Each structure stands twice: as structure tokens, then as C-alpha cells.
Sequence to fold (467 residues):
Amino acid sequence: MSSRFDEHGILVVGASLAGLRACAALRKHGYDGRLTVIGEEPHLPYDRPPLSKEFLAGETGGADLSLPVAGLGITWQLGRRATRLHLAARTVEVGDGTRFPFDGLVIATGSTARLWPAAPAGVHTLRGLDDARSLRAALLRRDGRLLVIGAGFVGSEVAATARGAGIEVTVVDPAPQPLHRAVGEAAGEFVAALHRQAGVDLRTSTKVVSLEGVGKLTGARLSDGTEVPATAAVVALGSAPATGWLAGSGLDITAGVRCDRHARVLRRDGTPAPGVVAAGDVTRWPHPWADAPGVTLGHWSHAAEQAETAARSLLFPAAPARYCPVPSFWSDQYDVKFRSVGLPALADSADVREYDLGARRLDVAYFRQGRLIGALTGNRVARIAAYRAQLAADLEGR
Amino acid sequence: MKIQVDMDLCESHGQCVFAAPAIFSFDDDDILVHAETADESLRDAVEKAAAACPVRAIRVHAATGDAAA
Fold:
């Protein structure tokens, strides 16, 4: 079945969940040819969700994070950063100038954390395993004071983990509540209350103006004129699709690698690039609930599911699979399991059905133009399945 | 087929409930409950559920006992 890929095989750029799941799906659907994975990090694929939680708390060893790769027949090219895609020549160039030819290409380079410019020592981001190791080493000293810049999911999880370890934590975010843009006012206030009850010094509607310290971080100056002490900081200001290596390739990389609903990658003229698919955080893709030019999601299940579609579209171009999921994500903070389905960030109204801080329970339904578009629960997982079924029914036939 | 869930690993993510609601559900305390055996006609859904579990807590065995997924 692999005749179209017989010369050079299939090349996957990106060695995290989406890249690995694409490989597994290619094999599952019968591809038995050459399969090469290029990864920027020196590590085999590993699990990222624990990096801001169990791993950071020192509860999970590095080995526990590894994802299963046995039996997939992959040639690994790790520690190599893709720098250029030559679409006409069908090669991917890496840092030292080596070019890897391909017959089929899967783009799965994920996203990159936004950095703080010219930061002193002691300022961390949290994207990869090496980031998490260095932050964990700083936290395990337990004698410092942590500044978390940005109260999105990563920032809130890091703050919760650090408080759990008894570390003094300040969280600064320009929005009026944590997670405001993702899940709105009520859920954001719920998370704010969790932080404050746990003893986090939460500064909302506030920005970090500058990081202080000669060589080593000592504190930060905030937009309200105050200063906070800090021996370590985490920059958690979100991430951007890792598309730098695709500049000049002819692909549409405006705010992510633009894909169609079959996970096929589109060129700047809007037509699919033959034999090129993409999956995961790096993609921007059309969802029936979203306006053009679509959504970009950093969710675990999105990476896993879109990779399956990408593999099938690559192998069976005459009958490409359709990717039309009910998105879902989770976030564990303190003793609350937040679970979400749909696209709450796109809602124009919300209905708070349960808000019980004492019992640690939350249930919010999100609507767009009167139609359910998502839900978020805290310690109410059982309710999420019903929301999910309702959203799946809405997507049928769309 | 037989279905095993390692409840030490399960974190109630719910992905299995989405993939195979006939097999997996939550009780009122958000603890996962599941059927321990299922008809072969549900294999596709159960294997999807196993693949969708972020903590890889689900094992699917042939009725005779060997792990298949």
C-alpha cells in the first residue's frame, strides 16, 4: 500500500504527542514503509501534562513520563531542529544543513512558550522536560519566593503546585481574573478564590513592568507601582505555534499552519500541498463553531485526535478523514479537577449552574448566540459526559 | 473481550466515557465505573477509549485473557 512513499518514506517533524500519535496511526492503517521522526529536543516522546503538576512537585520521576514507542519502526533524528521546508524539492533542512528527503510529510512541531526578553537568571518558562527539570530544582530548594507571570492554565497549575510544596507564591496577570479569556468571569473568580484561599498573593488587572536583579532575579516591579520579591519566576504568558522553520515555504502559516478539515496543509493560495499534513498545537483549522480562519488548540486530546486524521488523510488521499471533534481539556489545581468540553473561549454568554467554593464544585455552561458551545466543571466530572453528548449531537451533520 | 482499568492511574479525565459511553461512566463522586466484559461488536469503541486515556489506564484483553491493547 505504500507505493507512493517507496522512495524516501514519510517524515514526521516533531517528536511529541501529535508526532508520535501520527506514527502510530500510520502503522495502524497499514503503512509499512520508512518512517523518520525529527525532534528538536534530545528526548524520546514524553508526557507533558504532568510537567506543571506531579513532575514539578517531585512526585513523578523523569522515566515515568516516557510515552510508548516500541514496535513502531521509527528512525529517530533527535536533537535536530528543523530550520527549513523545501516544498518543491521535498526536503526538510535541519540546523547543521542536513536535508531529509520525504515522500509524505507530517508537520507536528507544536508550540513555543513566549519568553521574557533579556531575563536575569532564575527566570523560567515551562514548555519542555528540560524547562521543568530546571524549575523543579529551583522549587525543591523551598527557600525562595516564586513569581508566576500569567494566570492561564500553566501559570495557575504551577502556582497550585508550588503552594502545595509550601513555597511563597505571587501571581500577576493583566486580566481581572485568572483564566479569564479561556473560561470567563465566573470560572475565573472561582480559580482566583482557590489561589487566595491557598495563600497565593494574587495580583490581577496588573502587569509586570520589569524584572529586577543584577545577574540573578531579586524581584519585580508591577504596573501599580508596587514591588514584589522573587527568587525565581515562571513566565507563563501562553505559547505560539512553532512555525518559524516554515517561513518562505509557500505554506500558509498565518497564526499557525493552516489546515483544511482533513488535516491537510494549505498553501498560501488556499490549495492543499500534496502529501503534507499536520497535527496538534501548530495547526489552525476550521471548526464548525469557529469563524474563519479557524481555531488553534493546545489540548492533549486535540493533538492525539488530529494526528489520527492526518495519518489517514496522508495514506488515503482519495478518501480523507474528517476532523470535527468536540474539543476537551482538563486542568488539575489544588484539590479541584477542572474538566471542559467544547470551545468555552468562543462563548458570548455563560450560565453558572453550580458555584460552591466550600464543596469545591463548579458547573458552568457556555453559549454562543443562544446555543450551547461548551461547559466547564470542577469536581463534577459526571456532568461533563452529558454536555459532551449534547455538543456531539450538535456537530452531527454540520 | 475483557476490560481492565488501573484505578491507581485513573484521574477521571473522562475521555473513555466520551469514546465508549456504553462501557464507561462516572458515579456521583466522579469515580469511574465500567463494564468488565463487552461484546466484540464494541471493540472499536473500547480500543478508542483506551487510546484516548491520557494516563493509559485501560487495558483490553481477548476473552481468553491475553492483553491486546
Notes: DSSP finds six helices and 26 strands in chain A. The longest strand of chain A covers residues 349-356.
